[in-house]
């Protein structure tokens, strides 16, 4: 039976500057970039982990809101 728990975890990324990159990384034996989004100041992205996405990399000044807390990349 497949574990679909990761489908329920949403997180929000809010850009604090233009050009914030949100990069999705694949699951499996070879971790690779599979999706990239670029956010401008004030833009918000709502995302979740999937069967294809095991990690997210955020490059730039942003605030990330998760059920585990808030992360500010300036700190």
Task: Tell me about this structure.
This protein is an all-beta fold and 75 residues long. The protein has a single domain (5-72), classed as Sandwich (Immunoglobulin-like), CATH 2.60.40.50. Helix content is 0%, strand content 55%. The strands form 2 sheets. The chain has a 4-stranded antiparallel β-sheet, with no helix packed on it. The mean pLDDT is 86.
What is the N-to-C order of secondary-structure elements (H for helix, E for strand)? EEEEEEE
The CATH topology is Immunoglobulin-like
Rg for CA atoms: 13 Å
Count of helical stretches: 0
Shape: globular
- Sheet of most strands: 4 strands, antiparallel
Identify low-pLDDT runs.
none
Summing up helix and strand content along with how strands pair, one would put the structural category as mainly beta
What is the C-level CATH assignment? Mainly Beta
CATH architecture: Sandwich
Number of domains: 1
- CATH homology superfamily name: TRAP-like
- Number of E-type strands: 7
Mean of pLDDT = 86
Distance between the termini: 40 Å
Main-sheet strand order equals 4-1-6-7
* Share in helix: under 10%
Proportion of residues in β-strands: over 45%
Provide keyphrases for this structure.
7 strands; Immunoglobulin-like; 75 residues; mainly beta; 0% helix
């Amino acid at each position: 039976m497949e574990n679909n728990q990761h489908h329920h975890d949403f997180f929000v990324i809010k850009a604090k500057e233009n050009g914030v990159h949100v990069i999705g990384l694949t699951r499996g034996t070879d971790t690779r970039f599979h999706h990239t989004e670029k956010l401008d100041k004030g833009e918000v992205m709502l995302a979740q982990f999937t069967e294809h996405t095991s990690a997210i990399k955020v490059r730039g000044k942003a605030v990330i809101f998760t059920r585990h807390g808030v992360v500010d990349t300036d700190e």
